[in-house]
Write a structure and sequence with these properties.
The protein is α/β, with parallel strands linked by helices. The protein has 13 helices and 8 strands. Strand 2, helix 3 (about 95-105) and strand 3 form a beta-alpha-beta unit. About 45% of the residues are buried. The structure holds 5'-deoxyadenosine.
Length: about 350
Amino acid sequence: MKEKDRRNLRELWRQADASRRLHVGDEVHLRGLTEISNHCVRQCGYCGLRAGNSYIERYRMNKTEIMECAGECVRREYGTIVLQAGEDYGIKTPALSNLIQRIKAETPLAVTLSMGERPLADLSEWRNAGADRYLLRFETSDRHLYELIHPAYKGRKSDRIVTLRVLKSLGYEIGGGVMVGIPGQTYESLARDIEIFRELDLDMIGIGPYLPHPQTPLGRGEWKRNISEAEQAPNDEETTLKMFALSRIACPEANIPATTALATLNPQSGIEAGLMRGANVLMPDLTPQRFRNNYQIYPDRQAIHDSHDLSLRRRLENIDRRPGVGPGGRFDRLSEIIAL
Ligand code: 5AD
């Protein structure tokens, strides 16, 4: 993680790209991201959606609005819709089940959920309703740092690594991941994060730089943990790309998105950089603009663009890649190979 030598880094990028091509091919799977609510009961120290942030206007999309996004997802020939929200108990369990059933009945889309740490009964019910995948980043494998930045809810102890195992046992494809360069995060803990990606046998790995949000305690520098400057992992593009490359090598079959946070750090070519160093997925944002403006997890978030959809496809062509067809799940790929 500390490597600075350009030649060694070039070799790392080369190996990651070769592993990506060998194991998941040149297709870039597109997932339509739909941010269905920005309400959140949690108080995460880093996130702009935290309950304590009264500067944002809260919204919750209704069923019709969400179904319109699903329609848009189909029109654009994306294989998957990702329904994401803060941890919002205003999203009632049966209502979401119903919506999942409708999407599965009326479209060919795979459905990915990212609803935070909901109780087991909810996760299980949504799986039974037909949800295919669940995203829950564990943010950092460093227990002390995690507890500092991620206060428990109603005294319930949170362990996202355990929750990911539970999700897997329910039959979901599971997505975990981390932020890179959280204040107090060491290089060593990043290496450990990758070991955990592998131990969990993650199907999807989401990695992005930590971007300070001024309306959060961590962003304002109020919640601090003292580690030496030499140990602090930077939240820059190169460190994030090292995490992409090493994760691809450690978990060759995983689906790894070039994330919005990476695109925010480098709007010109962050997407290409990610895709050339291990990533094989993009998540263009389908959330209607009026809602999206209030989904400020971090400031100046550069949504991977809908209206730039055409240019997105062109950007893929420019790096010799092509949009994926079908749902693009980890095991769909296997069944395609077997069908051949
Ligand atoms: N900077 C970067 N990523 C963030 N996330 C939340 N807040 C921030 C931030 N300030 C990421 C977390 C979360 C995902 C939805 O967004 O990793 O899991």
